[in-house]
Amino acid sequence: SSCPKRSSTTVHIHNCCTTCYAINTSADSFDYKSFFAKVGLTSKSPDDIKKAFAIIDQDKSGFIEEDELKLFLQNFSASARVLTDKETKAFMKAGDTDGDGKIGADEFTALVKP
Question: Which parts of the sequence bind Ca(2+) 1 (predicted)?
Answer without folding.
Answer: 57, 59, 61, 63, 68, 96, 98, 100, 107
